[in-house]
Amino acid sequence: MTESDEGTETGLESELVAWLEENWDPESTVAEWWERLGTAGWAAPSWPAKWYGQDMSPSGAVRVQQIIAEFGALGAPGGLGLLLAGPTIAVQGTDEQRDRYLRDIVTGQKAWCQLFSEPGAGSDLAGLSTSAVRDGDQWIVNGQKVWTSTGTTADLGMLLARTDPDVPKHQGITYFAVDMHQPGVEVRPLREMTGRALFNEVFLTDVVVDDDAAIGGVNNGWAVANTTLGFERAGLGAGGGSAAGGLAGPGTVTGDLDRRAGDFTEKRGRRAGGGGMGFAGYETLTELATANGTIADATVRQDLMRLFSLYEIAKYTRLRQKALAGRGGSVPGLGNIAKLSMSEILRRTRDLGLRILGARGMLHGYQSSEAKALAERDGNLLAVGVTEAALFAQGPSIYGGTDEIQHNIIGERVLGLPREPSNDRSTPFRELPRNG
Predict the structure, then answer these.
(1) 22 counts as catalytic
(2) pLDDT in tens, 10-38
């Protein structure tokens, strides 16, 4: 980023503070506040100004989130609409599709989920078998998806379906925006070992999708999916900023749109059971170690500094990318590197957190009432968040593309190493063995 660009973004930050002073009203409803925030370009500031953004850099957008939180206002609508669907449609969609979908995302009117993985197509996503068969100007979809985050609260889904089984598997996929409220869509929550049910399996039976809901065009879904995965890895990776947004949930299902916006900002702070994914950072672990005396252990202090160093490396890698982007460059494979870094940070957080807790680490509140009882017994909320983070730490190395997939991408696309021998890019999908 050039010095001029940095000055422009600094000016926008000052403009944001002035805008918040004039517009933030805790008595407004969530829907009213998000309408103001989204249409003014502050919900998705890295998007093009033409499409509800401010043309800011990703790091500038993270700073906008921080300023809104520091001011005490409710942040932008969280979830996969703002993180994945919106940026993908902004890049790959038509103007008509951008006009149809993006406003409802930045204003929180519609929530999204991601219908990519299947029981037989996880790491080999291009091996998906959910079918979409053309019927006039519509498509009839049948199949099953799994590991669908926010499936129970989504209004729309990012759906990958096979529209041509007679071409190689990467070429016959289409990316649709699908209505999740229609008949034939069945969502079943999957309870994890944390006690939560963040993920779901989704069954699609004769589901109807209009032809004009194909993002990026028919049979071009693999390219569009890779756009989404790029945003996912950047957003979920270390140093990528918050992917979660505020405490209010977007969409018509959560019931938050008609609630008072100020109620959510007044709830900020630690809660029994931790936040959605239970991440416990090095600040939390330092505070806990100080409180229970394990900070006196030199190896604990050493591992805290290792964790701090990983956070700092992630931060400076993001700043390096920001500097290179201003000159038209980039860090090759940065999204994949950030994803791997996040997995490593969470594994180290898990191991160190359980060491600090000691025997207390064997207890976990799987229901909110149990978590609350443990927090009251401990006299603080920190241990509850640490055990949840420890249980959840296995997930990030799998979702969003496994660590092994990230290593393969870096090896093949960044380092230029040869691909494993395969005929899946030349053989029609219907002729391939399943998972072949």
Answers:
(1) no
(2) 677 789 999 999 999 999 999 999 999 99
Dihedral sign, Cα of residue 267, residue 270, residue 276, residue 279? positive
Which residues contact residue 325 at a Cβ distance below 8 angstroms, ignoring those fewer than 6 apart? 1, 57
The maximal CA–CA distance of the chain, rounded, in angstroms, is 71
- Alpha-carbon span 143 to 436, nearest angstrom: 19
pTM of the model: 0.82
CA 48, chain centre distance (Å):
20
C-alpha distance from residue 321 to each of 27, 79, 412 (Å): 40, 25, 21
Domain 112-230 CATH superfamily? Butyryl-CoA Dehydrogenase, subunit A, domain 2 (2.40.110.10)
Beta bridge partners of 260: 29
Tokens of 410: 């870096």
Tokens read off for 387 = 């055990």
Residue 93 near residue 85, CB atoms below 8 Å: no
Identified catalytic residue from 9, 35, 118, 232: 232
Six token digits for residue 180: 């999740």
Burial status of residue 418 (CB atoms within 10 A of its CB: 0-12, 13-18, 19 or more): exposed
Please give the Cα distance from 9 to 351 (Å, whole number): 39
CB–CB of 338/239 below 8 Å?
A: yes
Position 12 scores a pLDDT of 78
d(CA 368, CA 175): 37
DSSP reduced 3-state for 196? coil
**Which tokens in the block code for residue 152?**
């129970």
Rounded Cα–Cα distance for residues 333 and 107 (Å): 32
Sign of the four-CA dihedral 341, 347, 348, 349? positive
CA distance 145 to 167: 22
Buried b (16+ CB within 10 A) or exposed e, 294-311: bbeeeebeebbeebeebb
Q: Residue 279 phi/psi, 5° resolution?
A: -70, 130
* pLDDT tens readout for residues 95-127: 999 999 999 999 999 999 999 999 988 778 999
Collect the ranges in the chain with pLDDT lower than 50: 1-4, 7, 242-245, 269-279, 436
Phi (first) and psi of residue 66, to 5 degrees:
-65, -40
Q: Given the structure tokens 């006690």, which residue do they identify?
A: 195
β strands within 265-409, DSSP E: none
Q: Copy the structure tokens of residue 7.
A: 């000055």
